[in-house]
């Protein structure tokens, strides 16, 4: 029996979850392997299909890529929406990115039609026509064609895209996974890439103004990259950040139940499941599935066995990697002179403190050393890197909480936390 | 040159163990390891789940797998099991095939070559067709190779709906050589995770290659870590091995030997396989030669295990072996002149690589660590820490011998070594024997170490050694062996000019419970006769011992005298002075058996 995309999505039932889930670990998942994150998906889709643009940055292995592909699938089911989605990993040069965008544009979309028309339009410079023909005909990267795109014709093609998008009723959504990593690698590898990245960010802004929606995801944030390389952050200030927090306990319980139903582990019980979730700490789907596979393998069932398995195997292999990410990201702030303040803020959460208000955070900064604007910038860094998540009460100033229990666990073991 | 050097025989002693050369039935029969059963089950299950998806028009993401473990822990064996499983599935009509790249992919120079090699093998093209193109590391080459591979997949299965299990042994080497560039690694990840991917990577490596979060393949695999075999695993393995040869299961003595092997090799399955043969021998020579041959045979393997470590971890390993094991982390830190916290990371590496393991010290919360694979220690010491070859091959494996031999076996082989005049073998065996009793280890250690100076004429040290040996003699339950040994020891001591010391030692021997019953001056004096001492000296010794009780078993005494070559003694013409010191009854008995020309009549 064939299974359609809709069978995995249940657009009209936000509370729907798969009855059974085959555990998977390692990479982003799609369709029946995906555990719905409807609140996050819906928010992203609402933003993209209206007038917004989304930046979904955060730690690796929290489910961004899976959400990315799920959002793509759901958007594709909508009438009058065209999606160009791709993973920017492996793109070493600007032309790799530009070629990918052109190749991923929907074949029958309005923008593609405009570009195809341009490819045969005598009024268009012959170099542009040749480059477009090569890409559309071969559907593979072509070095010389893409190099031409980068150096000579990009502005021309960009203008064609903007014109086509602004005249079309069709909503074009460009989704780029690992966008910040790609920018960072280009910038670090080649000093001349800075001009291109700036130009690209500016042109993407023009695309957005023409109605093309953008979803950028990545395991590092863009704000810090902009600051380090002197790129104007104004090119990104129309993006709405979307966080990916761990699952709520009730949802995690449903996920675990679905995993158990798929192939029940030997000697499993509700009690074992409950102790298992307690031990998980931060309830990200990837961690739950990874730990579930380990516990199934080890056949640990008692409290002592489960705790030993987490202590010896799961936490070092999974949580430990998160801690490394925190360490590394925090060190990056040193280059921009904000590491000390970041530590001061995080230190405030060292006990059982649940939240800090925006004004409390401002109070931690020495105004003679760090300007108010820099503090706000730092808060954006901390959010993009998964350290903190804001909430906006209707009757007060923003409150900042730790991004997940992983951050609290990490804080519990860092040496600098003790003043 | 070692007393037990048997170089010519070594090559034949170490059996070859190449999983690829084993027949399927042998692999399945030898598949052992309680901790591994669920791993193998889970791997089969993963292949089954991926296959179920691969049959679909729109399959879910393929689950890639990484099997990690130190060298010799069974990664190739596990790969072989998967090969058999895939063949079984394929024979039952399932759309599945395995593509095995060589153990080391030295024929792959660029990322695109990797895909082309898979396509070539999958399509059954001859090796000659896979010549790498010049400069094939650009994105275009990768995409073209990917398209070629997709086309081959399409032909291989109906509408391409099938699963390829791609085995990549030593995946870490491939990553570090061919995919060392960040962009290339990102391309690899994108290929692994692309929609409708029906190629499942089954990779093996010595370490986890997907743990660096800055790398594209961060946590991209479901990882299985192979654990060392437990003692039970080893025993089960040996029983299966014997069953495959039509032999009965291990008897109790052999089980003890198998357990000794298990301890010695630190649960390393490859070594268990290679050492299986020595269970059947009681020859210390064969055991020692096998181990030596094994260390020689595995020298490349051990070098690579060392090379896999970071420089700091290597330094700690050296300090641990050089300074003596077991050792606590804090003591190890002192050895290298720093604090424990500063060696923690490098030490964790040694644990993670399963090179060292800790156990709780008696009456203390501190953990003491030692290298789990003792063949490795043997290799390390002989290669890096010894200036000259050991004088006895056995000296390098005393720890192993102590667990390998039963008390009875020890008594026999120790005495034999003494009687054959193999002093250093004897010393090694005595050391092994004493180490059976932990209470004796510390007290004996100094004496034994000093005894290694025996050949330098350091009599006092040697005496001290013999003193420790005495402790062992006390443990003998057999007066004959005890006496033989005592005589041998005294003889050696006397040969070094330690007459007075030998005399003292003799007195001590005679004071032991066993020897006091069987002792008599004749035998005690014998060494000095052999050393061609003068009659006055012999008489002196004879008198010294004459006060001891006469043997309650004349037959035993005579038999001992005989075995020691009493005839030679009597023929020396100097028996009178010794016999004078004998109790009358004994003297009569001896002379009845060996009537010498100059013997005094009773």
Q: Which keywords apply here?
A:
heterodimer; A: 419 residues; alpha/beta; five-stranded parallel sheet; three-stranded antiparallel sheet; 18 helices; globular; B: 602 residues; 59% helix; elongated; disordered N terminus; disordered C terminus
Number of helices of chain A: 18
Uncertain spans of chain A: none
Principal-axes shape call of chain B:
elongated
- Overall mean pLDDT score of chain B? 72
Rg of Cα set of chain B:
32 Å
Average residue-wise pLDDT of chain A = 87
Instruction: Describe the main β-sheet of chain A briefly.
Output: 5 strands, parallel
Distance between the termini of chain B: 50 Å
Helical content class of chain A: 55-70%
- Total helices of chain B: the number is 31
Major sheet of chain B: order of its strands?
2-3-4-1-5
* Total beta strand runs of chain A: 8
Layout: helices, strands, pairs:
The complex is a heterodimer of chains A (419) and B (602).
Chain A lengths: L4 H5 L28 H12 L3 E5 L6 H13 L4 E7 L6 H11 L5 H10 L6 H13 L4 H25 L3 E7 L1 H11 L3 H17 L3 E6 L3 H8 L9 E3 L7 H14 L7 H11 L4 H14 L4 H30 L6 H9 L7 E3 H7 L7 H13 L3 E4 L7 E4 L2 H9 L6
Parallel strand pairs in A: 1-4, 1-5, 2-3, 3-4
Antiparallel strand pairs in A: 6-8, 7-8
Helix pairs in contact in A: 2-3, 4-7, 5-6, 5-7, 6-7, 7-9, 11-13, 12-14, 13-14
Chain B lengths: L6 H7 L10 H7 L5 H19 L10 E4 L6 H17 L4 E5 L10 H13 L15 H18 L6 E6 L2 H7 L4 H11 L6 E7 L16 E4 L5 H14 L7 H14 L3 H7 L8 H14 L1 H9 L3 H13 L3 E2 H7 L4 H13 L3 E5 L6 E5 L2 H12 L12 H7 L2 H13 L3 H12 L3 H14 L7 H17 L3 H17 L3 H13 L1 H6 L2 H10 L4 H12 L7 H10 L2 H6 L3 H5 L4 H10 L9
């Amino acid at each position: 029996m064939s299974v359609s995309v809709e069978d995995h999505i249940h657009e009209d039932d936000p509370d729907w979850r798969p009855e059974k889930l085959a555990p998977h670990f390692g990479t982003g998942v799609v369709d029946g392997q995906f555990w719905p994150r409807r609140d996050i998906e819906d928010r992203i889709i609402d933003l993209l299909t209206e007038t917004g643009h989304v930046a979904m940055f955060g730690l690796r292995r929290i489910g961004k890529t899976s959400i990315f592909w799920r959002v793509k699938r759901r958007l594709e089911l909508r009438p009058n929406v065209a999606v160009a989605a791709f993973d920017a990993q492996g793109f070493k040069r600007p032309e790799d990115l530009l070629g990918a965008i052109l190749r991923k544009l929907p074949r029958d979309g309005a923008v593609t039609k405009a570009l195809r028309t341009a490819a045969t339009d005598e009024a268009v410079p012959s170099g542009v026509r040749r480059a477009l023909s090569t890409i559309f005909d071969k559907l593979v990267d072509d070095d010389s064609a893409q190099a031409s795109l980068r150096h000579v014709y990009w502005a021309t093609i960009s203008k064609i895209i903007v014109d086509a998008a602004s005249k079309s009723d069709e909503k074009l959504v460009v989704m780029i996974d690992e966008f910040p990593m790609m920018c960072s690698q280009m910038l670090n590898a080649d000093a001349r890439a800075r001009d291109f990245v700036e130009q690209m960010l500016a042109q993407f802004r023009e695309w957005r103004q023409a109605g093309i929606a953008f979803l950028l995801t990545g395991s590092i944030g863009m704000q810090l990259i902009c600051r380090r390389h002197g790129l104007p952050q104004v090119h990104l200030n129309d993006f709405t950040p979307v966080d990916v927090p761990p699952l709520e306990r009730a949802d995690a319980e449903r996920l675990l139940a679905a995993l158990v139903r798929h192939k029940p582990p030997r000697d499993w019980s509700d009690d074992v499941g409950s102790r298992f979730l307690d031990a998980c700490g931060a309830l990200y789907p990837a961690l739950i599935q990874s730990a579930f596979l380990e516990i199934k393998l080890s056949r640990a069932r008692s409290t002592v066995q489960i705790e030993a398995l987490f202590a010896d195997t799961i936490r070092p292999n999974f949580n430990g990697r998160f801690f490394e990410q925190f360490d590394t990201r925090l060190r990056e702030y040193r280059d921009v002179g904000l590491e000390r303040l970041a530590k001061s803020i995080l230190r405030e959460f060292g006990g059982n403190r649940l939240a800090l208000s925006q004004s409390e955070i401002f109070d931690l900064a020495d105004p003679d050393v760090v300007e108010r604007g820099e503090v706000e910038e730092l808060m954006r860094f901390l959010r993009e890197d998964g350290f903190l998540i804001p909430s906006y009460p209707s009757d007060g100033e923003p409150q900042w909480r730790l991004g997940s229990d992983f951050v609290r666990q990490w804080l519990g073991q860092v040496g600098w936390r003790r003043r | 040159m070692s007393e037990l050097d048997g170089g010519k025989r070594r090559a034949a002693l170490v059996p070859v163990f190449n999983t690829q050369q084993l027949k399927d039935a042998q692999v399945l029969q030898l598949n052992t390891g309680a901790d591994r059963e669920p791993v193998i089950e889970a791997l089969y299950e993963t292949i089954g789940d991926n296959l179920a998806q691969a049959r679909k028009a729109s399959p879910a993401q393929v689950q890639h797998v990484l099997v990690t473990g130190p060298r010799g822990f069974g990664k190739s064996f596990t790969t072989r099991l998967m090969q058999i499983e895939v063949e079984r599935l394929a024979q039952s009509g399932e759309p599945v095939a395995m593509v095995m790249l060589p153990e080391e992919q030295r024929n792959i120079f660029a990322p695109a070559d990797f895909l082309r090699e898979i396509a070539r093998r999958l399509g059954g093209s001859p090796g000659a067709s896979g010549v790498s193109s010049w400069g094939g590391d650009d994105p275009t080459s990768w995409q073209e190779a990917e398209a070629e591979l997709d086309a081959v997949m399409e032909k291989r299965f109906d509408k391409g709906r099938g699963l390829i299990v791609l085995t990549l042994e030593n995946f870490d080497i491939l990553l570090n050589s061919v995919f060392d560039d960040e962009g290339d690694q990102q391309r690899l990840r994108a290929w692994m995770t692309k929609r409708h991917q029906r190629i499942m990577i089954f990779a093996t490596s010595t370490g986890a290659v997907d743990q660096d979060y800055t790398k594209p393949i961060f946590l991209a695999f479901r990882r299985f870590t192979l654990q060392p075999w437990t003692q039970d695993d080893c025993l089960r393995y040996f029983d299966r091995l014997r069953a495959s040869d039509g032999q009965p299961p291990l008897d109790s003595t052999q089980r003890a030997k198998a357990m000794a092997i298990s301890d010695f090799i630190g649960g390393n399955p490859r070594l268990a396989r290679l050492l299986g043969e020595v269970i059947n021998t009681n020859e210390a020579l064969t055991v020692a030669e096998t181990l030596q041959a094994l260390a020689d045979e595995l020298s490349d393997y051990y070098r690579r295990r060392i090379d896999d470590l970071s420089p700091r971890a290597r330094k700690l390993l050296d300090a641990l072996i050089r300074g003596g094991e077991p050792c606590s982390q804090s003591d190890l830190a002192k050895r290298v002149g720093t604090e424990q916290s500063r060696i923690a990371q490098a030490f964790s590496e040694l644990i993670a690589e399963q090179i060292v393991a800790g156990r709780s010290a008696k009456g203390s919360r501190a953990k003491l660590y030692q290298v789990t694979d003792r063949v490795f220690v043997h290799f390390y010491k002989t290669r890096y820490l010894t200036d000259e070859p050991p004088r006895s091959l056995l000296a390098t494996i005393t720890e192993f011998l102590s667990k390998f031999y039963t008390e009875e076996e020890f008594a026999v082989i120790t005495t034999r070594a003494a009687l054959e005049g193999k002093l250093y073998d004897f010393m090694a065996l005595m050391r092994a024997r004493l180490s059976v009793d932990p209470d004796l280890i510390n007290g004996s250690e100094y004496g034994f170490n000093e005894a290694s100076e025996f050949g330098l004429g350091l009599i006092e040290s040697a005496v001290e050694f013999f003193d420790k040996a005495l402790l062992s003699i006390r443990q003998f339950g057999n007066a004959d062996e005890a006496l033989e040994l005592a005589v041998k020891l005294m003889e050696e001591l006397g040969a070094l000019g330690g007459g007075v010391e030998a005399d003292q030692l003799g007195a001590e021997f005679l004071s032991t419970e066993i020897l006091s019953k069987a002792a008599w001056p004749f035998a005690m004096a014998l060494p000095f006769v052999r050393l061609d001492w003068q009659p006055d000296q012999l008489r002196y010794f004879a008198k010294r011992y004459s006060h001891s009780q006469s043997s309650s078993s004349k037959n035993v005494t005579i038999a001992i005298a005989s075995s020691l070559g009493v005839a030679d003694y009597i023929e020396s013409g100097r028996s009178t002075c010794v016999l004078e010191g004998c109790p009358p009854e004994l003297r009569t008995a001896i002379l009845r058996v060996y009537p010498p020309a100059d013997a005094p009549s009773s």
